[in-house]
Amino acid sequence: MKRDEGGVRRRLIAASCALLSASAGRTEEAPNTGVQRALTDWSLDSALAYYHEDGRVQAVEPVVSVSKAYGDGASIGLNLTFDALSGASPNGASPSSTPQTFASPSGKSLTGGKHSYTTAPGDLPEDPHYSDLRAALGVDWTLPLERLLTAGFGAKLSYEDDFYSGSVNASIARDFNQKNTTVSFGASYEADSLHPIGGTPVPLSSYALFEKTGNQSKDGAGLLLNLTQVMSRNWLSEVSLSLDRFTGYLNDPYKIISVIDASGDVRGYIYENRPDSRTRRSVYLDNRVAWERSSTGLSLRYMTDDWGIHSETAQLHLRWWTAERDKYVQPTLRWYRQSAASFYSPWLFDSTAPQLSTASSDSRLAALQALTYGLKYGIKLRDKLGRESSEFNVRIEYYQQTQENRLPGPGTLRGLDLYPDLKAILVQIGFSY
Amino acid sequence: MNRRVLSLFLIIGAAALASGCVSLGVKPWQRDLLSRQDMQLNGNVLDDAIDDHLYFSKEASSGGRSFAGGGCGCN
Amino acid sequence: MAQTARNSPAGPLVVEERTRNFYAASFSAMAGPCEVLIHTSNREHALELGELVAHEAWRVEQKYSRYRDDSVLAWIHRNRGNEISVDAETTSLLDFAAHCYELSDGRFDVTSGVLRRAWRFDGSDRVPEQAAVKRLLPLVGFDKLRWQPPKLLLPLDMELDFGGIGKEYAVDRAYDLAVAHRSDPFLINFGGDLRTNRAPPDAPWRVGIERPGAEREAALVLTLERGALATSGDSRRFLLKDSVRYGHILDPRSGWPVPNAPRSVTVAASSCTEAGLLATLAMLQGAQASCFLEAQQVQHWVLE
After folding, report:
1. C193 touching A, CB under 8 A?
2. pLDDT above 60 for A28
3. Least confident among A174-183, A300-309, C114-123, C240-249
4. Contact A50, A428 (CB under 8 A)
5. Are the C-beta atoms of A187 and A160 separated by less than 8 Å?
6. β-bridge mates for residue A130, sequence order
């Protein structure tokens, strides 16, 4: 009856090991977190982007964003952006069969450069001395109010030598359903002040006369309603509705419109004028699906405004991770289409121009379609304990914009390429910690 | 597509999504994949900001998923 | 002191910062208070770990609870007299119960739950009649059920009860999940059954063992750096008649409590299941509890 008492423990150890290892083999409820992330409450995101349009502007844009997370769930973030643009920017006039010379009465070009410039026949008129330097600072603050309620605040200031902007925003978010559903509501307000170089032109006035007025301003408010829903372990869905309205000086002070006669010859140029208010509504949907080593996302946006513009945007991305989860590749595709503003016209006829109250030939208000192809490559670095600590990435994008509704020009404009495509490339390197 | 029909479809789709939401979801310990960086809705803030700035300066639409308004003089 | 609470169908999970860099996630499971202590400066991590551990505790409880009719145990009982195939986890638990039955010479028996019908340990002096206990003995005995994994045949009128190992098993399962999820020092404590992965950087965990009869006073304070602790004791469940104290751990072979069992036995081992079994077996040795544990060469503390 008496057993070898010392052997009981040995056998018990063996039995309990068998029990616990059998259970550990089941992964149905075990979390799969892959590689652990290193614990840190500070994070840094930085990127340097270089943008180059074929034959037009180029820009260098460094961005840095720092954020700190607090134990109670609050977080504070600061971001800094610099933007240096230079190159040739379309001035809004159309190509012509004869050379065109542009200069402001003071000898300065439209955008402050000290030279006048001439465009060859058939070329798109562009101010070759366009340059702009911008600095922007943003802060944001997230604050949990209660167990399921979070508030967010943000403010941003932007400075260029002809444009100042300040904005604030606030939002509140509530979680439901074990944090599977989140509803948030936000509001924002922006106030901008414009002091164009050389003065603000009187809208629709003659380019040659360059009548100026003083500084201008605009402001606007926006509302945003967002619903985020976890659909399943792999699938996250989001829908947003937004509304915003801007009033004030909404023109581009540097853009002119060619006034031509029936035979296509240029009679003159006038400064553009847009309505003094713009109300926009948009619906945005985003869906992301994840698998063990890859994920995909598709987002759709539909926007409509009271300028007659409506647009559709679709963006698809795919991400693939290597087996060790330390590198990824991410191709992206974006398709965009917009209709023209009701007051858009690539040029104006001299017979009708005087009767118009609003007109713009800014190609950004035209009916157009754009495609972006992108590829991103990232490398995750690990610390001594094998936890993810930082990331290096490089991204390249090719953007091509094509005008739709290419109305052929009358007379001497026939046969000219009045709507050249915009082709641009973006190259970016980034580092995150 | 008829603009009105499209916007109606999107609103209904959003409402359907919202009404069906009460029973959808996962348990807290099933959030492993969702917590991965590429599944975060704000996972690529800098890329989005640079792209948004680019599109704001070349197109007539902006925002939609966050506050609109460019804060720059480029449009 | 900010608190974060989550609500789940099984009850609230409350996370609070006890002291700097020390969070405690508390919840209720297996008829008692449970908590996870974690040494971290990040509340989100504490909450994640708390949720992970709580959900595993609730999962095990829901699966093997005697009191729920949606548990696997209830399903097994509804199919008494029929041969059924049980799932992988239940298979490993039954295999473990079989090993323990054998190495304890029948003292540890998961079919001994029927004896509950005669014994109610409510601190009173109502000790059952010999005859009442004798009537129940034929329904006790692991060797009476047919176990050919994964096929089980539980005879009519017999009962299965994992209560003797359920809590310790839940601690070990939650521990395995927690340790795969985070590397911060943590301590899982399900009503006195504990396990930790490692000690916090400044000092090891301090655990107080209550003196039976004088709850809230720590009779013993142990320091724990890694591994598990389980305590078996009668401090709240006993009968007292004619100055004889009857502890609630019954010997399945006789149907009666073990005479002269210590008031409380605490064992340290590498897993909670192992520690819990050794503590129970020690109690079943009665007066020989200390000798038994010494022979097993485990760290133990016996309170008489």
Report:
1. no
2. no
3. C240-249
4. yes
5. no
6. A87
Q: Say what the pLDDT of residue C214 is.
A: 62
ipTM of the complex: 0.85
The answer to whether residue C80 neighbours chain B at the CB level (below 8 Å) is no
C272-284 and A5-25 helices, crossing angle to 10°: 150
Cβ separation A36–C95 shorter than 8 A: no
Percent of chain A as helix, strand, coil, to the nearest 5: 5, 60, 35
| Cα–Cα distance, C176 to C49 (Å, whole number) | 12
Residue-range domain boundaries for chain C: 3-64+164-303, 72-159
Residues of A with Cβ-Cβ distance to B19 under 8 angstroms:
none
Q: Determine whether the interchain pair B27/C6 forms a contact, defined as Cβ–Cβ distance below 8 Å.
A: no
Q: What is the pTM of this model?
A: 0.61
CB pairs under 8 A between A and C: 110
- HSE on the CB side for A385, CA within 13 Å? 9
Instruction: Give the gap in angstroms from C-alpha C6 to the nearest C-alpha of chain A.
Output: 8
Largest CA-CA distance found in chain A, in angstroms, rounded: 119
| C72-159 fold | T-fold (1.10.3980)
Q: Assess if CATH 3.10.520.10 describes domain C3-64+164-303.
A: yes
Domains C3-64+164-303 and C72-159 share a fold: no
Q: What is residue A70's DSSP assignment?
A: -
Hey, what amino acid is at A27?
A: T
pLDDT over threshold 90, residue A397: yes
**CA A277 and chain centroid, separation:** 22
Q: Which two tokens stand for residue C230?
A: 């389980």
Q: What is the dihedral of CA A359, A362, A367, A369, to 10 degrees?
A: -170
**Do A155 and A138 meet the contact criterion of CB atoms below 8 Å apart?**
yes
**What DSSP line would sit under chain C, residue for residue?**
--EEEEEETTEEEEEEEEETTEEEEEEEETTEEEEEEEE-S-HHHHHHHHHHHHHHHHHHHHHH-SS-TTSHHHHHHHTTTSEEE--HHHHHHHHHHHHHHHHTTTSS-TTGGGGGGT---SSSS-PPPHHHHHHHGGG--GGGSEEETTEEEPPTT-----HHHHHHHHHHHHHHHHHHH--S-EEEEETTEEEESS--SSS-EEEEEEETTEEEEEEEEEEESSEEEEEEE-SSSEEEETTEEEES-EETTTTEEPTT--SEEEEEESSHHHHHHHHHHHHHTGGGHHHHHHHHT-EEEEE-
